[in-house]
Amino acid sequence: MTTGPAEVLSALQWRYATKKFDATRKIPADVWASLERSLVLSPSSYGLQPWKFVVVESPAIRAELRKASWNQPQITDASHMVVLCRKLEVTPQDVESYIDRIVEVRGVPRAVLDDYRRMMLGSIANPAAVPGGSMEIWTRSQVYIALGVFLAACAVARVDACPMEGFDPAVYDAKLGLRDQGYTSCVVATAGYRAADDAFATMAKVRADVARVVSRV
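Now predict its structure.
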């Protein structure tokens, strides 16, 4: 079944940054699997995917993370919680592994990818030349692309979600052992179903007029 323009806009109009989740409702396993897959399918610069997505399932860990998130209830009340993390450093080995993966998936000779390989290696060898001027800005930007894809996928699936930056990354990194793995937390996304008494769910969406923010040349 093809989703048309009206259905896409309806889904995006329906979604909002959910402030209060119904803690009794859980996302079905097949629906969550598709949302998890949407993160993996997100585009990234060169296709290098300098990220990790940590789905926090432990109620005890989520309770601890809530303390490091200004006590926001979404952390514990949402059906699912995922921490989107950026890679601290993109290395030559990351490039080699990616090239190996292309060869495996597409069945092409490694030699035909030599120019692409050299281009990627040249970029990561000079982080000041990457978009944003640093490895941190560049990898963080990739994570936010994935966040956008995830939020849109949730809307199409009629699953509520809330992107959250209000947390202490140092605590998250320590609790989840991220830096030992070469990553650091950037942003959190909680997902589930809105509570019936969430007043924000019925508020009109406030956005600028299209003509103000979209130009044509």
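Residues 173 and 184 are 6 Å apart (CA to CA).
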